[in-house]
Amino acid sequence: MRTFVPFDPNDDRRELEAFMVAETDADGSSRLVTYEMTNTDAPGPVLVASGIAQTEEITTQLTLLNDNGSIVEFSDLLLLPIDDSILWVRSLYVSAEGTSVPNLEFVIAAIGEGQKIAIGRNLEDALNRLFPGEDFGDVVGVAAGDGESDGGVEDPGPTGDGDGDGDGDGDEDPLPSELTLEEIVAEIDVEWQRSQDALAKDPPDRQEWAEALDRIDELLAEARELTDDSGDDPGSDSGDDSGDDSGSDPGDDSGSDSGDDTELTEVDT
User: Fold this and answer.
1) What is the C-alpha separation between 80 and 85, in angstroms, rounded?
2) Rounded to an integer, what is the distance from CA 114 to the centroid of its chain?
3) What's the rounded Cα separation, in Å, for the pair 19 and 232?
4) Is the pLDDT of residue 162 over 60?
5) C-alpha span between 40 and 240 (Å, rounded)
6) Coil, strand or helix: which one is 38?
7) Would you list the domain boundaries of the chain?
8) 50-55, long-range: CB within 8 Å, 24+ apart, which pairs?
9) CA–centroid distance for 159 within its chain
10) Alpha carbon distance 223, 83 (integer Å)
11) Can you tell me the distance from the alpha carbon of 73 to that of 66, in angstroms, rounded to the nearest whole number?
12) Beta bridge pairs of residue 34
């Protein structure tokens, strides 16, 4: 995933202009796809990061952590286009003085016009604060590899006894994904957590980190197929970040709506 902002010789333009993703088809071929924003007010990563840094609850937590002699580190901003909105996610790691392995302390989520921002102990907690009254327990926080279907990811069931005749010609299209959008979001959360855990290792496990990001790209492609099949255009509801909400409580639901119906234009690269 790579984001783009408009060219400006003075570096004053920081709105999200487009983002590029890498996709791999079932036949193994790969391509780069660029999604261009039609809404010129959607905040780019610098504006989102600035909003996060100016949010009162987050600055308070940073002050408390730094006062205790801990070393605080932010992860890169993760952009997740989901349905008609863009969700930004950033992890906050803390390591004690004299130790080299950081621990995941908080997860920050941001979305929409005015950049509604929330901080929680994990992604589920942050989303619950971002959208008070909504229940995300069934779609996030699934333990990786537990094989259970009650956490939002479908159990694939038994694989059979291997008595097939093997006469397939190999030309048939792969079976379409049976995951719902909610289940895709759940698995994205699992893979995102796996990527962060891989980076937190000493030394970082770059291979596992890359595998997790590749899986996230596949899941995002499945999510776009689902929204295309339902007649929805992929898009972004991100609004602009004027900085006026920087001091607001990230858990407050009195802010503006989560988006502004931004549309995206897909361009093969």
Assistant:
1) 8
2) 19
3) 19
4) no
5) 9
6) coil
7) 2-154+179-256
8) 50/241, 50/243, 50/246, 51/110, 51/115, 51/117, 51/241, 51/243, 51/245, 51/246, 52/90, 52/108, 52/110, 52/117, 54/243, 54/246, 54/247, 55/117, 55/119, 55/246, 55/247, 55/248, 55/250
9) 31
10) 7
11) 11
12) 20, 267
Residue 39 near residue 56 (C-beta atoms within 8 A): no
Strand partners, 176: none
The pLDDT confidence band at residue 6, using thresholds 50, 70 and 90, is low
Residue 37, beta-bridge partner list? 264
Q: CA 94 to CA 9: how far, in whole Å? A: 36
Exposure string for 122-149, b = 16+ CB within 10 A, e = fewer: bbbbbbbbbbeeeebeebbbbeeeeeee
- Cα(256)–Cα(81) distance, integer angstroms: 19
Residues in the chain: 269
Q: Give SS3 for 105.
A: strand
- Interatomic CA distance for residues 2 and 212, integer angstroms: 16
- What is the token pair recorded at 32? 């780069």
Nearest to 33 by CA among 220, 227, 236: 220
- The Cα 128–Cα 137 span in angstroms is 9
Q: Count the Cβ atoms, other than its own, within 10 Å of residue 26.
A: 8
DSSP symbols for 170-236: S-SPPPPP---HHHHHHHHHHHHHHHHHHHHSSS--HHHHHHHHHHHHHHHHHHHHHHHHTTPPPEE
pLDDT of residue 199: 83
Q: How confident is the model at residue 213 (pLDDT cuts 50, 70, 90)?
A: confident
The two three-digit tokens of residue 250, written as one number: 């990230």
What are the pLDDT digits (tens) for 70-102? Answer: 888 888 888 888 777 788 899 999 887 777 778
